[in-house]
Design a protein that fits this description.
Elements: E1 2-4, H1 42-52, E2 56-61, E3 67-72, H2 80-85
Antiparallel strand pairs: 1-3, 2-3
Length: 98
């Protein structure tokens, strides 16, 4: 799943920091950029939820020059450790947990 905007983008060196609590990526010294709204908790909360479900979230450049937030979540009853590894060894079985 991905969500993308057409804004000014987030510099590569700040893309991991946007997941820190209370961090808001703004361009320092740019008087044209209004002060950001919010508390800087949205992406920290999103990462917590996604990782609690054994997923992954990251930021990349948008196709239209903005920012693209991407996340993945495992599907189905697959064991999260097996899903993270990407493949099953030959003859391995998944154990469904109730």
């Amino acid at each position: 799943m991905a969500v993308e905007d057409r804004g000014q983008g987030i510099p590569a060196d700040l893309r991991e920091r946007v997941f820190d609590k209370f961090f808001r990526a703004t361009r320092d010294g740019d008087v044209k950029t209004p002060a950001p709204a919010g508390t800087g908790m949205g992406l920290a909360i999103a990462r917590g939820i996604i990782e609690a479900h054994h997923g992954r979230i990251w930021i990349e450049s948008g196709r239209a020059g903005g920012t693209r937030a991407v996340f993945t979540l495992p599907v189905g009853d697959e064991d999260p450790e097996v899903a993270a590894a990407g493949t099953l060894d030959e003859g391995a079985e998944l154990i469904k947990r109730n």
